[in-house]
Amino acid sequence: MKKWYVFPILFALLTLGCGGNGNSGNKGTQPAKPISLFINPPSARITPGQSVKLTVTAVNTGIIWPDTVAGSYTRAGNVATYQPPSAAGTYNFTVTAADDRAKTATAKITVESMESAIVEVFPKTVTLKEGMDFMFVADTRPEQTPSWNVSGNCGTIAPNGKFHALNAGTCTATASVPGSSDDVTIKVLSGTVNTGTLSVSTIAESLDLPASAFAQCLSNDATAAVNASINEGSTVFGVNVTPSNILLNRKTGKYTTVPGAYPLGRFEEALADLLTKSGLPSISAVNVEKVLSNAHYYGNPDAEIVVLIYSDMLCPYCKRLYNDQTVETLTANYPADVAMVFKNYPLSMHPTADKGAAGLYCAGKLGGDDAYYSYLAQAIQGSRFTD
Would residue 337 count as lying in a domain? Predict the structure, then answer.
């Protein structure tokens, strides 16, 4: 007798964990023609005399543009070029939904003095394999677009800070603005990216982590730490798919979720929602402290918005989100306001994912943020983990 019922059951089990485009849960009846309004960027920091382009996206509604603003603006279609006053301060630019006057979208534009320029790059060191890409984050104050250059022949870097590793060796990448610069050290290992079985101890060795301490960490507290991360995601945010991306305002506890490997635009919409919408869910200050305690930051650790990525390094959708550098690009686009924290959430359907997660925990424990994200860059390319 053919057990035809096995296939739908197996499919249901598989789709519970690895999140795809994030469509999960019940597909209840949706409200007809929901109205939404977004403005991008939702916040920006500029210097006196600069203007900023604001793009408004309206769904199922027209747009009411402001009659008066602090400063001035011109408009072409759904794009406004806003020129705030030259005096230092924060200025709001608000648009309203024509079909629901209660719905608005606001961009907060901060004009900063040019008295002392500062640029800070995250992370400070990274270890990659030949052929890998890695996005660096440059936080400039006041906000400016830095110029990038690389000394050495181990790779190239794009104007947005995305580095491409070419040749084994060590080089320095520098982000510069008038009056300030900051360097990062990049170590490129020989050999192509390994997409097969990876040894977590070998990755740790490539990061110059002490072998004995790494082995001791794997044997002692790594399993408990990974399980605690899984429990945290499930109990605090109701995580049940990977990747589950939580955009959290650390000051207010408000958050919104992007469950899946969506493109950058979806994350920018979620960021705008978090900064402008009321009625979003929130967590207590105790839980904010809980999820950020001992977190490993990619980007500015003092950023108001933290994108928590609960992820399984063997989940194909998690790999896609990482390899597209989606959240990394979001962080690089809003370096003063947004940081990323990758969280372990290995799934039982991937039998060795817990080993990879344990190695990531130990890399962070022994080597800090830089080792944590260097380990992640290598490990997330693999298909299986061994000790």
Answer: yes
